Automatic annotation (TrEMBL):
<protein>
    <recommendedName>
        <fullName>Probable membrane transporter protein</fullName>
    </recommendedName>
</protein>
<keyword id="KW-0812">Transmembrane</keyword>
<dbReference type="Pfam" id="PF01925">
    <property type="entry name" value="TauE"/>
</dbReference>
<dbReference type="InterPro" id="IPR002781">
    <property type="entry name" value="TM_pro_TauE-like"/>
</dbReference>
<keyword id="KW-1003">Cell membrane</keyword>
<dbReference type="GO" id="GO:0005886">
    <property type="term" value="C:plasma membrane"/>
</dbReference>
<feature type="signal peptide">
    <location>
        <begin position="1"/>
        <end position="20"/>
    </location>
</feature>
<keyword id="KW-1133">Transmembrane helix</keyword>
<comment type="similarity">
    <text>Belongs to the 4-toluene sulfonate uptake permease (TSUP) (TC 2.A.102) family.</text>
</comment>
<keyword id="KW-0732">Signal</keyword>
<keyword id="KW-0472">Membrane</keyword>
Length: 72
């Protein structure tokens, strides 16, 4: 039981360790990372605002239409 609980608890450390390693090697493109992070935060804020403003059934229908268009 402890073994199965330990792995997920360490998972947030893995990307940070990888980032530190790549940063020391000079392979991190910080500008692109900042752009990616910024657009992700703005998209999440806009999406959550839109999600609150639109009726749940309509939102579900829009999501279904999007999945059909994308072919998933």
């Amino acid at each position: 039981m402890l073994r199965s609980a330990l792995a997920p608890s360490l998972s947030p450390l893995t990307p940070l360790a990888a980032l530190a390693s790549h940063s020391r090697q000079g392979t991190v493109k910080w500008r692109y990372g900042a752009i990616y992070a910024t657009t992700g935060v703005v998209g999440a804020l806009l999406g959550s605002t839109l999600g609150k403003a639109v009726d749940g059934q309509k939102l579900l229908l829009l999501f279904a239409v999007l999945m059909i268009i994308r072919g998933e």
